[in-house]
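Morning F.,

Quick status update on the modeling queue. The single chain you submitted on Monday has been processed. Sequence for confirmation:
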Amino acid sequence: MTAVAPATELVAADRLRQIARHILEHEGMSHDDAATTANALVWADLHGAHAQGAALKVEQCVKRIRAGVTDPKAKVTVVKRTSAFALLDAHTAWGPIAATAGMREAIALAKTSGIGLAIVRDSSTGCGMGHYPMQAVAERLIGWTMNDSQPLQPAFGGRTRVLGNQAFAIGVPAGTHRPLLFDTATTAITLNAIEAYRDRGEKLPPGLVLDANGEPTIDPEAALAGILLPMGGHRGSGLALMFEVLTGVLSGGERFAGSVAGLNDLTQPSGVSFFHLAIDPSRSMRFEEFTKRVDDLIDLVHASPPRSGAERVPAPGERGA
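Structure tokens below.
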């Protein structure tokens, strides 16, 4: 008997948000928190980051709630606040809820002080990181978000997992062009990308990962059980270390670096921390002048001759948009 491929259906974004919200409300989230999560996950889907989107992350969230390591009713609270800085505690709230609360706090501070920094502790990964700085961009601000994660990469020169891949994203408003958005991590490849190679039956490019014994590998299965290498050698490793200072260390949370747990670990809270920075460019010059200068920068990128095989040189964020 010939196997039949499962049926697929194209689901409208609004419908997907509704489905995700209903599932999360059923698991105990408030309407607002479920909507916040659904918005973040569908944003990732709409920007092509399906590994951070609704299908996978709603399932992970439900598993964590049922295991008791993510609290669907947790409220993000302010521990400390000054004119430009806030420290928040998520109390094991799901990542997109904590990350949204942190960016909203940073935005509010930036609107009164010109700059706002919010650190959030005791959550889980934020999924599509670009969603949060784009909230700042919508308010005519520059935004920067990052979180730490379970250890995935070594310190430079080592061969055991010490640091997370420290996903981060920076968003910048523009004028006639789309906003700039740089959304990435500090490792040479991500777990999601390795899984994509595995699912296609392909080997990995060399030089990206080590196996569990600390030896180079191009086998995706060995890579998933192994160690991700930093992008750019010591440069990526150094950034990952400093980003851990700005997230896990600075948050004062119980977990940082090697003690942060992954989403698939259902035995304990993740203990992820976030860093959110919002900057008001109008404190430096008129907002329209700033965005015109950003447009000029993007024009310079577009005017660059493309290398062989490429039609044009895109600015960061264009493909996702």
